[in-house]
Specification:
Blueprint lengths: L14 E5 L4 H12 L3 E6 L2 H11 L4 E4 H7 L2 E4 L6 H7 L8 E4 L4 E4 L2 E4 L7 H8 L4 E4 L6 H5 L8 E7 L2 H12 L4 E5 L6 H18 L11
Parallel strand pairs: 1-2, 1-4, 2-3, 4-5, 5-8, 9-10
Antiparallel strand pairs: 6-7, 8-9
Helix pairs in contact: 4-5
């Protein structure tokens, strides 16, 4: 018996942790999930910075150091800068054991021509996370969201689809359901982690689109 791909689990009771929650993307995701009624904990290397960011955002968001955030959360979103990705995950391997980890890091470089994709040795940021966190359930999602829109309190809905990748359908279903908690957003299963590189790399193209059209473009998948 096949399961209905539109039948997603109830995730309203899950605690969502955001590592890198003091950065623009992390703050934006924390704000949107908390605004949707999710319990959210922001993580940072310095607990004080996380607590300050949480206080600014309100909505019951808490701040903590990264290790505490990881331990207290059911689902942990990785939103740290690419250059600190590996070191952050290596340091939190124990705390992230058994957790559902959602990697949204985009390995990018920048030069005078604009943004371009980097290809990690493991293939992608998500695959690097899976290699560094063998005891975690690693997925990839939330790559193509505008941090500006996420943080804008006047924006009621985020008009975009979220490409979700992972090895186990039960895990990607949870991430899809979390995406759907944010008004206007929809989670779409987009394959296994081996396909994460092109999803991460597409952000470089979106940056070019946004610069040319002075927009905050996202993605929509048609016929679903």
């Amino acid at each position: 018996m096949t399961t209905d791909p539109y039948d997603l689990p109830d995730v309203s009771g899950l605690v969502v942790g955001v590592l890198g929650g003091t950065g623009d993307q992390g703050r934006g995701l924390a704000y949107r999930f908390a605004r949707a009624g999710q319990k959210v904990i922001i993580g940072s290397r310095a607990a004080g910075r996380a607590e300050a960011a949480a206080a600014e955002l309100g909505l019951g968001i808490e701040g903590a150091d990264n290790a505490t955030c990881a331990r207290r959360s059911d689902v942990v979103i990785i939103a740290v800068p690419w250059d600190g990705h590996a070191a952050t995950l290596q340091a939190l391997r124990e705390e992230l054991g058994g957790k559902l980890v959602v990697d949204c890091v985009n390995p990018l470089g920048f030069d005078k021509k604009g943004a371009y994709a980097l290809k990690p040795e493991e293939g992608s940021a998500a695959e690097q996370a899976a290699a560094l966190l063998p005891d975690s359930r690693v997925t990839a999602a939330f790559h193509h969201l505008s941090a500006v829109l996420l943080q804008d309190e006047t924006v009621e809905e985020i008009d975009t689809d979220v490409m979700v990748l992972g090895e186990k359908r039960a895990d990607t279903d949870i991430v899809q359901a979390l995406a759907a908690r944010i008004p206007g957003m929809r989670g779409i299963f987009a394959g296994r982690l081996r396909g994460a590189h092109q999803v991460e790399a597409l952000v470089a193209n979106l940056i070019s689109v946004n610069r040319r059209y002075k927009a905050h473009a996202g993605l929509r998948v048609t016929d679903i």
